[in-house]
Structure to design on (266 residues):
């Protein structure tokens, strides 16, 4: 077995720092809870914005949200403060020896593998492709199924098939032009196709959705986004404050609106 000098250096450095850590008593109070919660909150806000903009579907949104919550739960730990006492030198030598031997054995067994994240991504893509194919086949015989067109448009968008997605949205819109949820999803996808700008056609669809349902929190939020695109911070604040007023106090997305209002008020 040929071991590269970089790997040997890594073992030596790891052993050195382990010995240093074990042989020098330390006292430190550790608390990562606040940091973990802040990071988790930011991830949830970014995920919600992607969902509000229609960049991800509802199923993907809930799956990603569950994953964020599980990650936070595993990372949280209790505050503690303790004195680490020095251990005998012979135990330090034994530990260093065990680490070195174990590292060499693992090095001999290492083989190129596909990262689990890549595997999950591939499986997700395959699943979406299957869904698109199934919906397209179904719509050949059922061209008037509004919900199927809507689902197809979102699935195509998630696959990056922007042109096909917009065409499917148009088909759905032709069947039900007054569906608020469809108008807002279409506006978000159309905006994504023009580098995130909600001006033009997306604004017209959002305005129409707000005319149909003036109490729609999603429509009010996107109207605020349109106002920021136009540089009208006062109007954006008006829309977001109304959305916040209509939103239940225990709604998980209140923080998103509160942060948006805080940002534009600076």
């Amino acid at each position: 077995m040929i071991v590269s000098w970089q790997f040997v250096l890594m073992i030596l450095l790891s052993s050195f720092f382990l010995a240093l850590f074990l042989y020098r008593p330390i006292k430190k109070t550790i608390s990562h809870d606040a940091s973990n919660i802040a990071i988790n909150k930011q991830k949830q806000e970014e995920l919600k914005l992607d969902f509000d903009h229609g960049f991800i579907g509802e199923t993907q949104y809930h799956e990603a949200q569950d994953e964020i919550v599980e990650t936070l739960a595993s990372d949280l730990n209790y505050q503690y403060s303790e004195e680490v006492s020095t251990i005998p030198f012979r135990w330090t030598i034994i530990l260093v020896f065990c680490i070195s031997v174990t590292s060499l054995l693992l090095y001999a067994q290492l083989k190129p593998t596909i990262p689990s994240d890549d595997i999950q991504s591939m499986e997700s893509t395959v699943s979406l492709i299957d869904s698109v194919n199934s919906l397209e086949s179904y719509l050949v015989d059922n061209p008037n199924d509004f919900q199927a067109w809507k689902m197809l448009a979102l699935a195509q968008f998630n696959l990056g098939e922007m042109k096909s997605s917009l065409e499917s949205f148009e088909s759905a819109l032709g069947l039900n032009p007054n569906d608020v949820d469809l108008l807002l999803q279409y506006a978000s996808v159309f905006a994504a196709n023009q580098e995130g700008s909600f001006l033009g056609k997306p604004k017209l669809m959002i305005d129409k959705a707000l005319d149909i349902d003036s109490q729609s929190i999603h429509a009010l939020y996107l109207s605020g986004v349109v106002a920021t695109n136009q540089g009208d911070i006062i109007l954006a604040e008006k829309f977001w404050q109304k959305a916040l007023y209509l939103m239940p106090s225990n709604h998980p997305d209140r923080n998103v609106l509160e942060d948006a209002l805080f940002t534009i008020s600076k």
Observations:
- The chain is about 75% helix and 5% strand.
